[in-house]
């Protein structure tokens, strides 16, 4: 329990305190970061290269990932942010030939419809199942007048957040918290460069940093806790959060946190005692020559950031990263998406219809126990892709009955219901094939053998209470 608390607390401290301190370099780094974050209208670009060890991917060789992002943003009003960017991703040299556009506007997140073709191409290049190529092609034909897919409504993402304060007010509040809560603390991680500041974490100095940080917090726990509460009060006062259970009450949250004060003090003392044992230095040895370096700089009107790092565990290189970003102040006008759009739900429905038509299921595998109420169904499509799920079924006079519409439409059949005669049919052109069965909870259930009327081949085996069957088109 103690070690779990230690791990959690260290992670939180590293996350929130890596820029803390009040020495000249820390303040310089913090001020330049604040300058960058205060830009509310700007253009940006980023280039990132990653290499991931085959030990992680399970492939025959290391994987290389290249990401290119460029665009513009306007966050003057956090409640109505605007973002327009192009994204290109390549894995081992293969990736989207045309950038996928992502737009945040009108309180929605959009992606350009060419993501369908690009994802389909990636699947083909790397040989994994997902979008069927022919189905994706037919879907794009259906969407010839549509430009964007609505991925999400912003209000649906973790509830609704409304900001009462300007973006820069929140930044200043964060800066004030760091300088007040950690005044006098020297991270010893940040250095001045010709155009900015750099911060480098190695396996060794990261442990030393955490040791200094824990010691500082242990000796100043009342100050750190008080400033943290004050900062959270400012944040909650600046935002209104509405979730599933209504508005979050600031007073209740702060009171609950205040009630954790003694637990916080006790945990800090436990962590400090643990660090006195020196056990934490064993982890530095395991991470060997791992490092991550982050540099921020300003050249003229351009702010930049360079990141590079490598993860080495017990002398094995697991991966590395290099990233270059630039951000430049620019007037950016908010714009609405006026082109025709389709929601993700509508897109999935369209894909399902087209998939059943152009990449239908040719085999259904079934397995069940006579004591069960659900049958385990595997639907195998023409291209070999398989989908598995549990489906309600019924046992009548020792025979298994399955929902006709579920099975029939999976095979690409058209199923119709004649309400007057209480019968279901499979329609093929002008032919109507009567599928006798029984109505259970408004669903027509038919015997597995009834699918022989459609020309399907039925295979069936039973051993004690366990049964398996196949329906092949």
TrEMBL record:
PROSITE patterns associated with the record = PROKAR_LIPOPROTEIN (PS51257)
Could you tell me the superkingdom of the organism this chain comes from?
Answer: Bacteria
Stretches assigned to the Copper amine oxidase-like N-terminal domain = 363-425
Q: Name one Pfam family in it.
A: Cu_amine_oxidN1
Protein's recorded name: Copper amine oxidase-like N-terminal domain-containing protein
Taxonomic lineage is: Bacteria, Bacillati, Bacillota, Tissierellia, Sedimentibacter
